[in-house]
Specification:
The protein has 184 residues and is mainly β. The protein has a six-stranded antiparallel sheet with strand order 1-6-5-4-3-2. Strands 10-9-12-13 form a four-stranded antiparallel sheet, with no helix packed on it. The longest helix is centred in the N-terminal third of the chain and has 9 residues.
Length: 184
């Protein structure tokens, strides 16, 4: 996904409840103190502080063993943190620092799209990875604005070139070229 300015992953990641409307998605989540988001992970705690996410994040729910948190940082950028169960992919933090910040007409997902893990805008019901020719490699449904394919580390498709979002009728909403760096 183009424009994710900060992302950190390691093996084993907004405010009060009214912020849900300010997130720009219908999943309002539940406010939790930021220090409880990634307890015991000093590196990711520092990343959250560096990204100026504030004192609380919204817990958006758990899907396929991944717990999702989101907020808008002090600059208004959408930030997501992920935490996992022991048998799933690692923790992570990412903020969209682009001018067309998530969610927008052109940006329908935020997260780690090459692993089909993230938060989707309202109206997105499926997120898919495509190869260079436009063939679907893998797809996953969106549940309550969250998507998390059941893909273990090292199993993400190395030939994924695009992430595509679809609505409930199967219409393509967006097709974004993946940054080759995000496929590592």
């Amino acid at each position: 996904m183009v424009g994710l300015a900060a992302a950190v992953t390691v093996p084993a990641i907004a405010f009060a409840s009214q912020l849900g409307g300010l997130l720009g998605i219908s999943n309002e989540g539940t406010a939790v103190p930021t220090p409880s988001v990634l307890p015991g992970d000093a590196t990711l705690d520092q990343v959250l502080q560096h990204m100026n996410v504030g004192g609380t994040m919204q817990s958006l729910g758990t899907l396929n063993g991944i717990t999702f948190y989101a907020t808008r940082n002090n600059a208004g950028n959408f930030c997501v943190a992920f935490d996992h169960t022991p048998d799933n992919i690692g923790k992570g933090v990412v903020c969209d620092l682009n001018a067309d910040n998530f969610p927008s007409a052109d940006v329908k997902v935020i997260g780690f799209p090459s692993t089909l893990l993230g938060v989707a805008a309202d109206g997105v019901t499926t997120v898919a990875l495509l190869d260079v020719a436009g063939n679907v490699i893998k797809s996953t449904p969106v549940v309550n604005n969250l998507f998390a394919a059941t893909v273990a580390p090292g199993q993400q498709p190395p030939d994924a070139a695009y992430v595509e979002t679809l609505d409930s009728s199967g219409n393509v909403l967006t097709k974004e070229k993946l940054d080759p760096q995000s496929r590592r």
